[in-house]
Write a structure and sequence with these properties.
Mean pLDDT: 76
Structural class: mainly alpha
Low-confidence stretches: none
Largest sheet: 2 strands, antiparallel
Strand content: under 5%
Keywords: Coiled coil
Distance between the termini: 83 Å
Number of helices: 6
Shape: elongated
Length: about 140
Amino acid sequence: MLLFNGINEPIKKSTTATKNTQLNHLDKRQEFAKEMASTQPSSLSEQLRNKDVSTYLRNQTFLEKAQEAALLQRMGVNKEKLEELKEQLEALDKMLADGTISQEAYQEQRAVIEQEIAKEYEQAQKRREEEEKSQGKL
């Protein structure tokens, strides 16, 4: 490839320019490798690498919460009642962690709350079936 220096003076491209660019690319790659070695991964990345997904599961996005609300509404579940029961479970877990409740009492109360949650889902299913029957008759 010929380059022109001025109007009529062709200059041949030297091979030293290509060697310099190759050296520059090599230097950049080495700098990048050094930089990557010195960076620290985020705590979430570290937890996922160690297969600890509990934090990831706890951090639901707004979209996931909206999808859950839409699903519960479609199923006919009373979301307020369900949230109240979940809060009771969290309070019960906290009492166990604080040591203000015995393990046996904790298990009994947790079983009662879980039965109420199951009952709420059953009632929602019955309401949904009744709605489908009434829509089918119209």
